[in-house]
Amino acid sequence: MSAPVEFAVWAPLPERVRVQVDGTVHDMARDDDGWWRAEVDASPESDYGYLLDANDTPRPDPRSRRQPQGVHGLSRRYEPGSYEWGDGAWTGRPLAGGVVYEMHVGTFTPEGTLDAAIGRLGHLVRLGVDFVELLPVNGFNGTHNWGYDGVLWYAVQEEYGGPAAYQRFVDACHQQGLGVVQDVVYNHLGPSGNYLPEFFPVNASGANTWGNSINLDGPESDEVRRYVIDNALMWLRDMHVDGLRLDAVHALVDERATHVLEEMAQEVDKLSVAVGRPLTLIAESDLNDPRMVTPRVAGGIGLTAQWSDDFHHSLHSTLTGEGQGYYADFADAGIAGLAKVLTGAFFHDGAWSSFRRRHHGRPVDTATLPGWKFLAYLQDHDQIGNRAVGDRISATLSPAQLAIGATLVLTSPFTPMLFMGEEWGASTPWQFFTSHPEPELGRATAEGRIGEFAEHGWDADVVPDPQDPETFTRSKLDWSELSREPHERLLAVHRSLLALRRAHPDLLDPDLTAVEVDWDDADRWLAVHRGSLRVVVNLADEPREIDLDRSADEVLFATAELPAIDGSTVTLPPESAAVLSTR
């Protein structure tokens, strides 16, 4: 049934704006702030778009909640308040002490939808994780994409099921005790379907790795910042999401006294009080600046947590021996570098970075910042998908080595994160895929990808074409692997480690000053002190005898045969790890 509805859009650039609702065009009136408004009869699912100046092709609403015909088509009204939530008992959960599971909706299941993903939530509950982190789901052009080419930040991609399916997914997660973190991209817009510059000055004069930067501090930037922050609040308030992962915040150029991230953190904290549950902001930042997660009262930006790529790089190079590109410093440092990261979160803490050819980072004050503020992982979407052939680390390491990696991640003083399928050593790759309908853009994307890796010595023939539908299909998880070896055994390792983490407060202790690491680079072993527990790792291909600082009395967990204990001496089998209680 139709009823009067106010349509409003911020568009200071055009001289004339009209709104088309269900095929009928209506004039709009402009106020002094550049907002255009019109009251029009519309149904709850009316299709609409905006006509700018003399252009007779309607553009989608910059704040569109639904795009049933794609990002070039008309917007469709969607009222998020119409959904009947069943998560009334959900009071949220803090990030501290939690474990995050990173998921791409399109490749998590064969169907690639949010509703299909609901059917797999039981697996995550049995695994023992606490948060599902969804890669971006906002509107992008085409049928499949990583999500980082989004152009309509307020919409949920229709192929995933649209906003109603998104609410069902979050609701189902909450009812099964899982929090939801949504990955959002505020540092750039995708290359196709971006009509925002026709409405308002969304772009800054400079550019970043992915295209034009966002106008956060230039003329007319107040409302651009509002567009960003309102989007963040939308996910948390209307969609009941528990946290946001903020993509590449180092690319958010903002010279104002109050950075947009600090302003966002302030408003999210207010919303948290209003909704009565913890709300989390997690940054992806390569700045290695602890001020990002330092509370505002102590002069920081005040975000909840951030990814620690240094942890990944150090662990990856230690396990694989890779030392090219940005792995060089970590490979040179060896196990000593991993020990540094385990006790201080950052490797580049003001140290020389050969990849950047300059000093980089700042030390973490471990006396004031807890370890849970840093996410630790062996794999993530970037570190897999941005490899030339999108190969997971399971394509390189043995099951025994994968179990070692899992042990170091899940017993760390940080917030552990797993990438979908990692828990069973998935054999499927996760490659870079796109589906740009425009032939020229598709060709440019493919050629750019191949050329990028050719510069690093890769054979162009082995680099997958991101536009090839098979690249997307290959990247879908194969769920039949769970019941086959060695996958079943590795899944059991992850479940046991996550259960151990929940059962022993020493493994949840985020005090970085209490973490000590003993190691021997030559014999390739290390021992991590976690309260009364010792996490011992043998990276060598033969047994190693490790002298602990105190007597061990019980093996709580082992990736292989049980190690032999003789007082304070433990003998570990080759390529194995164990968690010991001591006295």
Structural shape:
elongated
| Alpha-carbon Rg, integer | 25 Å
The low-confidence runs, each spanning 5 or more residues with pLDDT under 50, are none
How much strand?
A: 15-25%
CA(first)-CA(last) distance = 72 Å
Give helix % range.
25-40%
Strand element count: 29
Instruction: Give the strand line-up of the largest sheet.
Output: 8-9-12-15-16-17-20-21
Number of helices: 16
Major beta sheet summary: 8 strands, parallel, barrel
Give an overview of the whole structure.
With 583 residues, the chain is α/β, with parallel strands linked by helices. Helices cover 27% and strands 23% of the residues. An eight-stranded parallel β-barrel has the order 8-9-12-15-16-17-20-21. Strands 22-23-24-29-26 form a five-stranded antiparallel β-sheet. Strands 3-2-6-7 form a four-stranded antiparallel β-sheet, with no helix packed on it. α6 (221-237) runs parallel beside α7 (260-275), α8 (309-320) packs antiparallel against α10 (335-344) and α12 (399-410) runs parallel beside α15. 48% of the residues are buried. The model has no long low-confidence stretch (mean pLDDT 96).
Short structural summary:
By secondary structure, this protein is of the alpha/beta class. Helices cover 27% and strands 23% of the residues.
